[in-house]
Design brief:
The protein is an alpha/beta fold and about 425 residues long. The protein has 18 helices and 14 strands.
């Protein structure tokens, strides 16, 4: 048995309490950590999307912490299960992807994954290594170990069944195939969000049925998005992507609601818990302005994914543009000639709505209309005076030298040449 150095009481406490929702079984997991055995830590992902946001980082940071203690991370690329689709608490079957799409997404995912997890101490395995050899007899053998009633206990399946909404048989296979991943690699611990608890427990049970020591199930909390209400999600638009440019990452983190500041600190930084307790007390007693710890949080996370210089520049940009109301120094420009070549401008003028679409300040006419109705669009003339553009002024004409501001941080300057 490969061993690792003994774990200190401080490290043990951090592993089992910080950024943790539930461990099954907690006592067994502690015993494993104290045994000195080099643990095989499993995390699987379905590359149905090519990107990672900070909600995923909560679990990745825990993997990195255990790597530092000598344990082995094994990343399972779900190139088979991604083609089946797992709703994971959603109300409908996820879109099925081709194998080519899955592999392309996987490469993007891995590049971002290794911004957190140490690549030199991780093993990447594709499910096709074992499922590519499966035949119908093997699938039937596996399905015979569980009942439909057991799988309908999963919350999203139970809700859809009660509402008489369809559940594909392939979806029922998903937890079983994910569970077999644990058998294939002889996982000691599997990691996932609380929405994956059922699937992780199926893996634990299947290992026991097949003569292996059942894995421990390590569940991380769900990170609330920047809206302060729902879980972080690209679909909901309340996310901070791992690949965000520094200024955007910092700016989005500054929009985190005040009541989520401390959970972000706990899940996404290494600031000591004792220090976080002091910040919490100061916030609750109103002796600390929430802006200060929020700036520290935004700088810390931006530094993790970029560097200190980029984090400093992002903070300076925020203080100058958002807090100070100054204009940024690197405003994108678009020329009348370019607009005329696109057929969206005539003569030496262009409509506000046409410029917003051509400059990428809005993805659609519907979004342009929404931004205008919300008062989120301003025209800044050469004299520097901002003038709101209202919903009824979509056709307001702009001329070279005019600056268009959308929201707090998006700009474009209209140029003559």
């Amino acid at each position: 048995m490969t061993t690792v150095p003994s774990i200190s009481p401080e490290d043990l406490e951090s592993v089992i309490t910080r950024g943790v929702s539930e461990i099954i079984s907690r006592d067994e997991f502690i015993r494993l950590l104290q045994s000195g055995k080099k643990l095989r830590l499993k995390m699987g992902f379905d590359p149905s999307r090519p990107d990672i946001h900070l909600g995923h980082v909560v679990g990745l940071r825990k993997l990195r912490a255990l790597q530092e203690l000598g344990h082995q991370v094994i990343l399972i690329v779900g190139d088979w299960t991604a083609q089946i689709g797992d709703p994971s608490g959603q109300s409908a079957t996820r879109t099925v992807l081709s194998h080519e799409q899955v592999l392309e997404n996987a490469q993007s995912y891995l590049r971002q994954f290794f911004k957190v997890v140490d690549e030199s101490r991780a093993e990447v395995i594709y499910q096709s290594e074992w499922f590519g050899k499966f035949d119908l007899a093997k699938i039937i053998e596996l399905t015979g170990r569980f009942t439909v009633a057991q799988f309908l206990q999963r919350a999203d399946f139970a809700a859809r069944f009660a509402d008489q909404k369809p559940i594909a048989i392939t979806e029922l296979l998903y937890p079983l195939l994910q569970a077999y991943d644990s058998v294939a690699i002889e996982s000691d611990v599997e990691f996932g969000g609380t929405d994956q608890m059922f699937n992780l427990l199926v893996g634990r049970e299947l290992q026991g049925m097949m003569g292996q020591t059942p894995q421990q199930c390590f569940m991380m909390p769900i990170l609330v998005g920047t809206d302060g209400v729902q879980k972080m999600s690209k679909t909901l638009g309340n996310y901070v992507a791992v690949d965000e440019p520094p200024v955007d990452m910092y700016g989005k983190l500054m929009r985190v609601s005040d009541d989520q500041i401390m959970s972000y600190f706990e899940y996404l930084t290494d600031v000591p818990m004792a220090e976080l307790a002091d910040i919490t007390n100061d916030l609750e007693s109103n002796t600390l302005n929430p802006m200060e710890p929020k700036k520290r949080l935004a700088w810390n996370v931006t530094n993790q994914f970029h560097n200190s210089e980029a984090a400093d520049a992002a903070q300076a940009h925020f203080e100058r543009v958002v807090q100070g109301g100054d204009l940024p120094t690197d405003i994108p420009e678009i020329s009348m000639a370019e607009l005329r070549s696109q057929g969206v401008a005539g003569g030496n003028e262009v409509r506000v709505d046409d410029l917003m679409l051509a400059a990428g300040l809005a993805p659609s006419k519907a979004q342009v209309k929404r931004l205008l109705s919300q008062g989120a669009v301003e025209r800044i003339s050469q004299g520097g005076n901002p003038q709101p553009v209202t919903g009824g002024e979509a056709g307001h004409m702009l001329q070279p030298g005019d600056l268009l501001k959308v929201g707090k941080r998006r700009f474009v300057r209209l140029m003559d040449a």
